[in-house]
Description:
The protein has about 220 residues and is α+β, with helices and mostly antiparallel strands. It is built from 3 helices and 9 strands, in the order E-E-E-H-E-E-H-E-H-E-E-E. The strands form 2 sheets. It has a 5-stranded antiparallel beta sheet with strand order 4-5-3-6-8. A 4-stranded antiparallel beta sheet has the order 1-7-9-2. Strand 4 and strand 5 form a beta hairpin. Mean pLDDT is about 85; it is low at about 5-10 and about 180-195.
Amino acid sequence: MQSWHHPAPPAASRPALVITGQGTVTAKPDTVLIAIGVRTEHHNVQEALVDNAKRTNAVIEALKTLGIPIEDMDTASFSIRPTYEHHDGTTALSGYEVEHWLEVTVRDTKKAGAIYETAVAHGANLARGLEFRLANEQAYYQQALALAVKNAKEKALAIARALGLPLYDTPLELKEQPPARSTPYHPAVLSISSSAPPVQTQDVIITAFVEATFVYSFIS
């Protein structure tokens, strides 16, 4: 969080208004983050591992043919879990489940559907919600921040006019508030027979918040 301070106006201990300002900028995304995974199950853990590695490597190689560089494919998580069967009140080990999740950064949003189709065709059977992003989000955030400051000032002036109070329209103190966090992924299973899903691009919404303190004086 950052703060900006303005020298106090003449006469100390002036009454003040504390205002929250909000600024929002909407932009078309140029990047999409996709999480796809491979789940394998076998009675033997080594077989589950070998099968998973084979299918995951096939997915990676297939995505490379679509122009996705290897540095844009990262392992998000990898797990090995035992599976059990329950019968007549008893529990017995039935095998092992291996999951390997890849986080794929796609720098052309139009390729999102083809990424899913290709991944499924080469062994992927898990997917999580995609996330649209901006490669240079900071530039848009600065615009939203400027709008948030303007919004705070406009709100302070509106309140002052309604109350008939003289207001110093330059804030005595201005604090940047933490931006809102993005929505987490939600797991979903892909069908092996899935064709390219129609992925509709969603606008990226960047929001900034500030807290501004304005001083005013009562009419004598």
